[in-house]
Amino acid sequence: MGALLMIGGSAVAQLADDPLTRPIAPDYAARWLAPQPPARIYGNTYLVGFRKMNVALIDTGAGLILIDAALPQSVAAVEANIRTLGFKLRDVKFILSTEPHYDHAGGLAALARDSGATLVASAPAAKALRQGHSDADDPQFGQLPDLPAVTGPLRIVRDGEVIRLGKVSVTAVVTPGHTAGSMSWRWRSCENGRCLNMVFASSINPVSVEGYRFSDPAHHAIVTTFRSTIARVGALPCDILFTAHPDNAGGDVTFARFEQHPTPNPFIDSAACRKLSASYTSIVDERLAKETKPAVVQ
Q1: Of the candidates 163, 154, 192, 201, which has an alpha carbon nearest to the alpha carbon of residue 58?
Q2: How many CB atoms lie within 10 A of CB 136?
Q3: Using alpha carbons only, what angle is made at residue 163 by residues 40 and 181, rounded to the nearest 5 degrees?
Q4: What percent of the chain is modeled with pLDDT above 90?
Q5: Whole-angstrom distance, CA of residue 242 vs CA of residue 251
Q6: Which fold would CATH assign to domain 24-292?
């Protein structure tokens, strides 16, 4: 991604290679990155990502908290969205990670560098972010591209730990399964005297490399973890839900409705987390049933 220099009164592209924003799987990833206007969703909470990839922003009054970072090639767009809302990039103090996969964490290193923010993640995710790839405990291990390794400040948090900045407290919710280091985040936002419970949920879908069987007895612990995580997400206090991929919970459709008719706010749904949990309970059940279905002999 080149910068523009003014030479002799004309703009000339400077073709500088930035290793932290080199595109990853650009043709495949393009499905997620259709532009979406940055928008205040409720109170001090904004979305600054894309039609099929959520990135959230919280204005704490003493700096900004960003949740997720999308891909390296989308960093410039996220930064532009933050500025479009009237904020300064250097006001981002924390970037919270949901999972160490390239589609959500690929832009972390560049955004942290550009903003000076501290990254925040679970211990397993921090390990993957430092080395630039996940380990064999990831059902998608061996299939996913590496991501730019994080070298700057990285704070490791445990389940229930609270990130405090200004008037906002964001609580870490461990939600492993999709990756061992997956983390969801919850906080409260207020508008016109009404405070709502906000949740940014990590991916909870049972995706794997070809040939991987969740029904294999060796993976019993992973399935147990998945079921525990899905149940936990369903039990969260939850008035507005964002999922890492918005279409996992219909968030893409909700945003389109919000653009047309923001009042009453279509994002407000106190059953959203329960619906997500029920949906992915069925998806896990269907995956296991499909794996264990006897083969038809022709």
Answers
A1: 163
A2: 7
A3: 95
A4: 79
A5: 7
A6: Metallo-beta-lactamase; Chain A (3.60.15)
